[in-house]
Amino acid sequence: MDYPVRPGADSENMRARIQEVAEEHFRRIGHHKTSVADIASELGMSRANVYRFFPSRDAIKESICRRVLNGTAELALTIARRSTPPSKKLEELLTAVHHHNKTKLLHDRQMHDLIVAAMQENWPVIKVHAEQMMTILEAIIREGIETGQFEVEDPAEAARAVKTVYTVLPSGSDRAPPSTWRRHRSGLA
Q: Which residue in 11, 115, 142, 148 has the fewest CB atoms around it within 10 Å?
Protein backbone atom coordinates (compact mmCIF):
# COMPACT_ATOMS: atom_id res chain seq x y z
CA MET A 1 0.00 0.00 0.00
CA ASP A 2 1.41 3.38 -0.98
CA TYR A 3 1.27 6.20 1.53
CA PRO A 4 0.19 9.56 0.15
CA VAL A 5 2.57 12.45 0.55
CA ARG A 6 1.16 14.90 3.07
CA PRO A 7 2.80 18.15 3.96
CA GLY A 8 4.12 18.69 7.44
CA ALA A 9 4.59 16.17 10.19
CA ASP A 10 3.31 13.16 8.24
CA SER A 11 5.83 13.81 5.49
CA GLU A 12 8.66 14.18 8.00
CA ASN A 13 7.56 11.03 9.79
CA MET A 14 7.62 9.07 6.54
CA ARG A 15 11.06 10.45 5.62
CA ALA A 16 12.30 9.37 9.04
CA ARG A 17 10.78 5.91 8.62
CA ILE A 18 12.43 5.53 5.20
CA GLN A 19 15.74 6.55 6.76
CA GLU A 20 15.31 4.03 9.59
CA VAL A 21 14.60 1.18 7.19
CA ALA A 22 17.43 2.23 4.86
CA GLU A 23 19.90 2.46 7.73
CA GLU A 24 18.83 -0.96 8.99
CA HIS A 25 19.43 -2.43 5.50
CA PHE A 26 22.74 -0.59 5.12
CA ARG A 27 23.93 -2.01 8.45
CA ARG A 28 22.82 -5.52 7.57
CA ILE A 29 23.84 -5.87 3.90
CA GLY A 30 25.65 -2.63 3.04
CA HIS A 31 24.77 0.49 1.12
CA HIS A 32 25.98 -0.96 -2.19
CA LYS A 33 23.61 -3.90 -2.01
CA THR A 34 20.55 -2.08 -0.67
CA SER A 35 18.13 -0.98 -3.37
CA VAL A 36 15.22 1.42 -3.22
CA ALA A 37 13.04 -1.61 -3.97
CA ASP A 38 14.35 -3.28 -0.78
CA ILE A 39 13.47 -0.21 1.27
CA ALA A 40 10.05 0.16 -0.37
CA SER A 41 9.23 -3.50 0.12
CA GLU A 42 10.07 -3.34 3.83
CA LEU A 43 7.76 -0.34 4.16
CA GLY A 44 4.97 -1.87 2.08
CA MET A 45 5.10 0.90 -0.48
CA SER A 46 6.21 1.33 -4.08
CA ARG A 47 9.61 2.59 -5.19
CA ALA A 48 7.85 5.55 -6.79
CA ASN A 49 6.46 6.56 -3.41
CA VAL A 50 9.92 6.37 -1.82
CA TYR A 51 11.11 8.73 -4.57
CA ARG A 52 8.47 11.24 -3.47
CA PHE A 53 10.42 11.65 -0.26
CA PHE A 54 13.95 11.23 -1.61
CA PRO A 55 14.81 12.18 -5.20
CA SER A 56 17.35 9.37 -5.60
CA ARG A 57 19.04 6.41 -3.96
CA ASP A 58 22.08 8.64 -3.50
CA ALA A 59 19.94 11.12 -1.56
CA ILE A 60 18.92 8.30 0.79
CA LYS A 61 22.56 7.27 1.22
CA GLU A 62 23.60 10.85 1.92
CA SER A 63 20.82 11.28 4.51
CA ILE A 64 22.02 8.14 6.34
CA CYS A 65 25.60 9.36 6.17
CA ARG A 66 24.44 12.68 7.65
CA ARG A 67 22.71 10.84 10.51
CA VAL A 68 25.90 8.92 11.32
CA LEU A 69 28.10 12.02 11.11
CA ASN A 70 25.66 14.02 13.22
CA GLY A 71 26.30 11.52 16.01
CA THR A 72 29.99 12.42 15.92
CA ALA A 73 29.25 16.15 15.80
CA GLU A 74 26.84 15.86 18.75
CA LEU A 75 29.50 14.04 20.74
CA ALA A 76 31.99 16.83 19.97
CA LEU A 77 29.46 19.55 20.85
CA THR A 78 28.64 17.90 24.15
CA ILE A 79 32.31 17.91 25.10
CA ALA A 80 32.85 21.47 23.86
CA ARG A 81 29.98 22.72 26.05
CA ARG A 82 31.35 21.23 29.26
CA SER A 83 32.55 23.47 32.06
CA THR A 84 36.10 22.18 31.94
CA PRO A 85 39.31 23.90 30.92
CA PRO A 86 39.77 24.20 27.15
CA SER A 87 42.89 22.02 27.20
CA LYS A 88 40.88 19.26 28.85
CA LYS A 89 38.02 19.74 26.37
CA LEU A 90 40.43 19.45 23.45
CA GLU A 91 41.97 16.29 24.83
CA GLU A 92 38.56 14.77 25.62
CA LEU A 93 37.16 15.69 22.22
CA LEU A 94 40.05 14.18 20.29
CA THR A 95 40.01 11.04 22.44
CA ALA A 96 36.23 10.60 22.24
CA VAL A 97 36.04 11.17 18.49
CA HIS A 98 38.96 8.81 17.96
CA HIS A 99 37.26 6.13 20.08
CA HIS A 100 33.91 6.72 18.36
CA ASN A 101 35.46 6.40 14.89
CA LYS A 102 37.49 3.35 15.88
CA THR A 103 34.37 1.68 17.26
CA LYS A 104 32.55 2.48 14.02
CA LEU A 105 35.38 0.87 12.05
CA LEU A 106 35.57 -2.26 14.15
CA HIS A 107 31.94 -2.88 15.06
CA ASP A 108 29.86 -1.22 12.38
CA ARG A 109 31.78 -1.94 9.20
CA GLN A 110 28.87 -1.21 6.87
CA MET A 111 28.41 2.33 8.21
CA HIS A 112 32.16 2.85 8.13
CA ASP A 113 32.15 1.82 4.46
CA LEU A 114 29.37 4.32 3.75
CA ILE A 115 31.42 7.14 5.33
CA VAL A 116 34.52 6.08 3.38
CA ALA A 117 32.53 6.12 0.13
CA ALA A 118 31.19 9.58 0.99
CA MET A 119 34.70 10.84 1.63
CA GLN A 120 36.16 9.29 -1.51
CA GLU A 121 33.34 10.64 -3.65
CA ASN A 122 33.34 14.07 -1.99
CA TRP A 123 29.69 14.10 -0.98
CA PRO A 124 28.52 17.54 0.22
CA VAL A 125 27.63 16.07 3.63
CA ILE A 126 31.32 15.41 4.27
CA LYS A 127 32.21 19.05 3.67
CA VAL A 128 29.43 20.18 6.00
CA HIS A 129 30.61 17.77 8.70
CA ALA A 130 34.24 18.88 8.36
CA GLU A 131 33.15 22.50 8.70
CA GLN A 132 31.11 21.66 11.82
CA MET A 133 34.05 19.90 13.42
CA MET A 134 36.42 22.74 12.54
CA THR A 135 34.00 25.25 14.09
CA ILE A 136 33.91 23.22 17.30
CA LEU A 137 37.71 22.90 17.43
CA GLU A 138 38.15 26.58 16.72
CA ALA A 139 35.70 27.52 19.50
CA ILE A 140 37.63 25.45 22.02
CA ILE A 141 40.91 27.01 20.89
CA ARG A 142 39.43 30.52 21.09
CA GLU A 143 38.28 29.76 24.63
CA GLY A 144 41.79 28.54 25.43
CA ILE A 145 43.26 31.78 24.09
CA GLU A 146 40.81 33.84 26.16
CA THR A 147 41.65 31.92 29.33
CA GLY A 148 45.39 32.10 28.66
CA GLN A 149 45.82 28.35 28.22
CA PHE A 150 46.71 28.51 24.54
CA GLU A 151 49.13 30.92 22.95
CA VAL A 152 48.27 31.07 19.27
CA GLU A 153 47.60 33.99 16.99
CA ASP A 154 45.08 32.45 14.61
CA PRO A 155 42.48 30.08 16.11
CA ALA A 156 41.32 28.91 12.67
CA GLU A 157 44.86 28.01 11.65
CA ALA A 158 45.42 26.25 14.97
CA ALA A 159 42.19 24.26 14.50
CA ARG A 160 43.36 23.19 11.04
CA ALA A 161 46.72 22.15 12.52
CA VAL A 162 45.04 20.08 15.23
CA LYS A 163 42.84 18.42 12.62
CA THR A 164 45.82 17.71 10.37
CA VAL A 165 47.94 16.23 13.14
CA TYR A 166 45.02 14.24 14.46
CA THR A 167 44.15 12.73 11.08
CA VAL A 168 47.66 11.37 10.58
CA LEU A 169 47.73 9.47 13.88
CA PRO A 170 47.59 5.70 13.51
CA SER A 171 43.92 4.73 13.51
CA GLY A 172 44.63 1.34 14.98
CA SER A 173 46.03 2.68 18.23
CA ASP A 174 43.95 2.98 21.36
CA ARG A 175 45.37 6.38 22.11
CA ALA A 176 44.44 9.81 20.93
CA PRO A 177 47.09 12.56 20.83
CA PRO A 178 49.54 12.54 23.72
CA SER A 179 48.21 14.09 26.91
CA THR A 180 51.38 16.20 27.07
CA TRP A 181 49.81 18.39 24.37
CA ARG A 182 47.55 19.94 26.96
CA ARG A 183 50.41 21.10 29.15
CA HIS A 184 52.52 23.01 26.63
CA ARG A 185 52.00 26.76 26.81
CA SER A 186 54.10 27.44 23.74
CA GLY A 187 51.69 25.71 21.41
CA LEU A 188 48.08 24.72 21.19
CA ALA A 189 47.63 23.30 24.63
A: 148
